[in-house]
Amino acid sequence: MVLRIRNNIVLASASPSRKMLLEKAGIPFTVKVSGVDETVPEDYTPAQTVECLASRKGHAVQPLCGKEDAIIAADSVVSIDGKILGKPKDDQDAKATLRRLSGRTHQLYTGVCLLAEGKEQVFHAVTQVTFYPLTEEEIEAYVAAGESRGRAGSYGIEGIGVVLVQSIQGDYSNIVGLPVAETLRRLAAMTGN
């Protein structure tokens, strides 16, 4: 393990992608799901939105944790033209979102809240993602594969959605759901590891 963190780590997220990222980093952790309300004021920017929701999730699970626990909470959104694209309501909504992203660059924001040893740190990371121009057949096939469901922006880069992406600028793991290296380095600095 490259980074050692002595605290018990609690991931305040039900996201399989975030779990996978921490597992790949070799970090032992437990999961506690917050189940918080995820509505925010409509005038919030993408950065404000993800930071607010990450903080809300972290504080919601804090009473369920011990004093020695370090909490990692996160929330991600896709944004294009300054507008947040949420999780699709249905397959038609997913197709409309993918048409909008086709051939264009969008931003993936992830907010992270770290709570450990009486300290709190909230930050966000942004990754630029450019899609290839997508044909209607590609969009139909991708949505039919089911990977759009429950995904901000209607795609997942860690699965077959990788074929939609022409280029990225920034942290790849941020697109998956957590800027892992930055998160763990900040947590290690917070806890004196």
TrEMBL record:
It is found in: Cytoplasm. It is an enzyme of class 3 (hydrolase). Its cofactor is a divalent metal cation. GO terms for molecular function: nucleoside triphosphate diphosphatase activity. Pfam families: Maf. The active site is at 75 (proton acceptor). One of its GO terms (biological process) is nucleotide metabolic process. It catalyses: a 2'-deoxyribonucleoside 5'-triphosphate + H2O = a 2'-deoxyribonucleoside 5'-phosphate + diphosphate + H(+); a ribonucleoside 5'-triphosphate + H2O = a ribonucleoside 5'-phosphate + diphosphate + H(+). It comes from the Bacteria. GO terms for cellular component: cytoplasm. Keywords: Cytoplasm, Hydrolase, Nucleotide metabolism. Its EC number is 3.6.1.9. Nucleoside triphosphate pyrophosphatase. May have a dual role in cell division arrest and in preventing the incorporation of modified nucleotides into cellular nucleic acids. Belongs to the Maf family. This is Nucleoside triphosphate pyrophosphatase. It comes from Candidatus Acutalibacter pullistercoris. The lineage of its organism: Bacteria, Bacillati, Bacillota, Clostridia, Eubacteriales.
